[in-house]
Automatic annotation (TrEMBL):
Lineage, highest ranks first: Eukaryota, Fungi, Dikarya, Basidiomycota, Agaricomycotina
PANTHER family hit by this protein: CXC1-LIKE CYSTEINE CLUSTER ASSOCIATED WITH KDZ TRANSPOSASES DOMAIN-CONTAINING PROTEIN (PTHR33096:SF1), CXC2 DOMAIN-CONTAINING PROTEIN (PTHR33096)
Organism (species): Botryobasidium botryosum (strain FD-172 SS1)
Pfam families named among the record's database cross-references: KDZ
InterPro entries in the record: KDZ
Listed name of the protein: CxC2-like cysteine cluster KDZ transposase-associated domain-containing protein
Length: 220
């Protein structure tokens, strides 16, 4: 609304509610056109497969290192699901199917979840594909010493600098959307969240090069 008021001022037009609607619709159509173009490009590049994103989320993380325990997807941090193990179990199934062997997954209660996993039909795959559950360093320090020795990312060889608390950072950033989307329509809320994460992705991707070269030059 304030943006439309500024435009009205610049053009010397009297502000009316009607103009806000017109601008909002034009903006929605513009965003929609961008999405359609994105989808067509993804289709041409054969990136429209539903698992493509999961497989190609991060070139650094999915890079396989020989001779050390390679963690194919360290950023697979899960957050706590209230009273229900079905979501983390479904996610585990998907990650095992798509990413395969030697996976490390961070979960606030990764230690307790291991016991749950052993009692499910996933138990065999978890063992044969060497999947391990870790506790993130933020939550893990609240667990007992024995748990920390087995599950705390800081004590596990192969985890590198990963703290398995990516979700906390994701939520911390996306929380800023709340005041903007509180009174928005469901459509505009989704649009804002989608725009936020597209920007987040592109910024992270852009920073990968700088960060990786920093690692090799000992700046971390
Ligand atoms: Zn990564
Ligand atoms: Zn624990």
């Amino acid at each position: 609304q304030s943006f439309v008021r500024t435009l009205d001022d610049l053009h010397g037009v009297t502000h009316t509610a009607n103009l806000v609607h017109q601008f909002s619709s034009a903006f929605d159509i513009f965003i929609h056109i961008l999405r359609v173009i994105d989808r067509r490009i993804a289709c041409c590049l054969k990136r429209d497969d539903s698992d493509w994103r999961l497989k190609n989320a991060c070139p650094c993380c999915s890079y396989k290192v020989r001779s050390i325990l390679s963690i194919s997807y360290p950023s697979a941090s899960l957050f706590t699901f209230r009273n229900s193990a079905k979501y983390p179990l479904a996610i585990t199934r998907k990650l095992l199917d798509i990413l395969g062997h030697n996976l490390g997954i961070g979960y606030d209660i990764g230690c307790a979840f291991c016991a749950t996993l052993r009692r499910t039909c996933l138990a065999h795959d978890v063992q044969s594909k060497n999947l391990r559950y870790f506790c993130g360093v933020f939550h893990g320090f609240a667990h007992n010493r024995l748990c920390q020795l087995q599950h705390l990312a800081r004590n596990i060889e192969g985890c590198g600098y990963e703290d398995f608390e990516t979700c906390e950072r994701v939520f911390s950033a996306s929380n800023h959307l709340a005041p903007l989307t509180r009174y928005a329509s469901p459509y505009h809320r989704k649009e804002a969240i989608d725009a936020h994460f597209r920007l987040w992705d592109s910024e992270k991707y852009r920073n990968l090069g700088t960060q990786t070269s920093g690692l090799f030059h000992g700046q971390y």
